[in-house]
Amino acid sequence: MTKISDNLLGSLYMIGSMTAFVSSDAIMKSLSDELTLYQAICLRGLISTSLLGLLAWHQGAFQTMPRGRDFWIILVRTLADVGAAACFLTALFHLELGLISAIVQAVPLALTLAGAWFLGHQVGWRRYAAIVIGFFGVLLIVKPGADGFNSYSLLALASVAFVVVRDLTTRGLSGKTPSLIVAFFASAGVTLMGTLVAATSDWPADLGSPMIALFFCAFLLVFGLIFAVTAMRVGEVAVVSPFRYSAIIVAVVLGYFAFGEIPDIWAVIGSLIVVGSGIYTFYRERVLAIS
């Protein structure tokens, strides 16, 4: 394949990944009247962890279990994933789908800032300016102090912080530990958290319909993970990464048709600012990499 074809294919994989993730979130949100949050996390996790475990076993990934430094990194990473899932899914049950998807798109900006502060990455004034403008866009989406403020937006922001910790920690992993093992332990950790909390609640008598929905939810989640990894391996990171913002478009469309949600003008403006800032940050990273 030519380089253009590789980037196009990688971009399509990234769009597919975001579509799968947002669709999985939409299914979770649709079950809020039938299951508690942690019941849904427990059941979805049992399915997705089983799927990841079978895939890891099929590819022989369990033959290379993490040891030493990698073990502790995966432990910290898994705890961060548990925190991110708890905050994000709690917010998901109480916020519009498009709104929470827009908030979490601040992750690339937060990662760039954290990389500069904690890993010594060189970040110039242009990218610092883009980060500040991007976070201003997040404030427009969250609207702190305004009449339309929803306190669950703070949980969405907390999930962003947990994701930054997770991703920064992941950078320390050696190449010996397979990605499937990392994903398996993250899924298992979230599932364990959901199971422990859900065990104290009253379960509905009929789980047939929710289980069918959660099977598709877990299926989409696993494929989203696979597509995301494939996207970064097929295309150039600087070209493929901006297509993660397609999640906002998918979330707004699904939010409208599935839940009748219509974002207000400030959320739209804030989303555009976050997306623009993120794309500019990716562009500057590519320019610096070339130079």
Describe this structure in words.
With 291 residues, the protein is mainly alpha-helical. The protein has helices at 3-30, 37-58, 69-92, 97-104, 107-118, 125-142, 152-170, 179-198, 208-234, 237-240, 246-259, 265-290. Helix 3 (69-92) packs antiparallel against helix 7, helix 5 packs across helix 6 (125-142) and helix 5 (107-118) packs across helix 7 (152-170). The chain is globular. The mean pLDDT is 88.
How are the SSEs placed, and which strands pair?
Layout: H1 3-30, H2 37-58, H3 69-92, H4 97-104, H5 107-118, H6 125-142, H7 152-170, H8 179-198, H9 208-234, H10 237-240, H11 246-259, H12 265-290
Helix pairs in contact: 1-9, 1-11, 2-8, 2-9, 3-7, 3-8, 4-11, 5-6, 5-7, 6-12
